[in-house]
Amino acid sequence: ALWINNWAVAQQAGLDALKLLDVGHVKDCKSISIAHTYVAESCFRQGKLKEGMEHAMHALEKQDELATRNQGEENMAKALRCAMCVNVATARISMGDTQEAIHSIHKALQYVPHSREAIRALLFVYLKQGNVDKALEVLKREMKRF
Question: 121-126: long-range contacts at Cβ-Cβ below 8 A with a sequence spacing of 24 or more?
Fold first, then answer.
């Protein structure tokens, strides 16, 4: 449903998947995390920011749980958590909460220190706040890597 841009159908499909996953005896953290991510994105696309945030936070919790169980998949889990933190930051920006957005972006950068998406989001927030000096500081720091 996401690929046809029918966000309400996508949200319901994700919620149905979560119900099915809840029935089983073995809790599959990866599938639960994916389902919560799916629902979060569909909620964000519909403007249901609070509900989307709840599912994004559940997805992060499951990803943390997965990471502690499977150290071999740690890099993938970090990338997923980073992406989710950036999504949470985007929702917070939409709600006008730039301070919490910055907090989420810094958390994303803890998972993947030079994430382009996180850096872009951080630059956007700083520029939105009119804090050009901070934005330039971030850009200069990132340019030193090259």
Answer: 121/86, 121/89, 121/90, 121/93, 124/93, 125/89, 125/93, 125/98, 125/101
For 109, 126, 137, 143, 144, the CA distances from 140, given in Å and listed in that order, are 16, 14, 5, 5, 6
Cβ atoms 18, 32 nearer than 8 A: yes
Q: What is the pLDDT of residues 68-117, one digit of tens each?
A: 666 656 777 788 889 999 989 999 998 999 999 999 999 999 999 989 89
pLDDT in tens, 27-36: 677 888 888 8
Whether 108 and 115 have beta carbons less than 8 Å apart is answered as yes
CA distances from 143 to 8, 82, 113, 138 (A): 41, 21, 14, 9
DSSP state for residue 3 in the 8-state scheme: G
- Give the global pTM: 0.60
Give the C-alpha separation, 51 to 29, whole Å: 20
CA-closest candidate to residue 134, choices 94, 106, 112, 104: 106
Distance CA 42, CA 65 (A): 23
